[in-house]
Design brief:
Oligomer: heterodimer
Distance between the termini of chain B: 26 Å
Structural class of chain B: mainly alpha
Shape of chain A: rod-shaped
Radius of gyration of chain A: 14 Å
Number of strands of chain B: 0
Distance between the termini of chain A: 42 Å
Radius of gyration of chain B: 23 Å
Number of strands of chain A: 0
Helix content of chain A: over 70%
Number of helices of chain A: 1
Strand content of chain B: under 5%
Largest interface: A-B, 21 and 32 residues
Order of helices and strands of chain B: HHHHHHHHH
Order of helices and strands of chain A: H
Number of helices of chain B: 9
Shape of chain B: elongated
Strand content of chain A: under 5%
Largest sheet of chain A: none
Structural class of chain A: mainly alpha
Chain lengths: 33, 223
Amino acid sequence: MRGSEMTRTLYVGLLTFLVVGLAYFIVLGLVHR
Amino acid sequence: VNRLRANGLSLFFGTIFLLALIGQAISGLADYNNQQLATGGDPVSIWHYLTSSSFAVDVAENWQSEYLQFLLMILATVWLVQRGSTESKETDKAGPESDKDQKLGRYTQDDSPHSARVGGWRTSLFSTSLALVMGLFFVGSWLAQSVAGRASYNAEQLSQFEDPISWTGYLGSAEFWNRTLQNWQSEFLAVCSMVLFSIYLRQRGSPESKPVGSPHAATGVEG
């Protein structure tokens, strides 16, 4: 893996983490835990 | 090794983020269980805590304020300048600047991103994508804070035999605004500090600072 590919992987990984994380928090709120 | 070095900044902050989040989960569980015992409840497992709205609201309220900070900083610095600050561009460049300054239109380069070269709505969208994404994560985190915060608030209300409230009711509650504003005030103070401190103080070698020998009044120079 080249340096620039790793950079893109980190970028996409962070975006994915944030979207999944926020969706998870909203679901937790909606199921009233 | 070279590609690790080339991504050192993001790997460093990504790593300490995960360590801090694990630390928050462990200390948050201990705090939650102390309160459970104090109010006659049973202690819960880490799994129960990590799937609780109490954990979700604590994380989300901090996230929203960070993304708001970056959103405001990105947009405010388009129009507002601060003489001498590393956070500001040169004082005569306020505004969205010319196509030449921004390497757009006929000033695009061979290595410009495709989205900058195509023109039309795609270039317009790309031209504000940084603020847009920060804004989306701000709104998303604030929404998550409100939804999880309401669930957490209602769980506490019910444990005290009081009435649960609606989501819109929670949006007007003292708890929601206390959680929100206590995070906002610290972010705004931090930004104001960085804007003003970077005029008169230096860190040799840091791009967040001017070169050590730069005059205090120099604006728009990086280290």
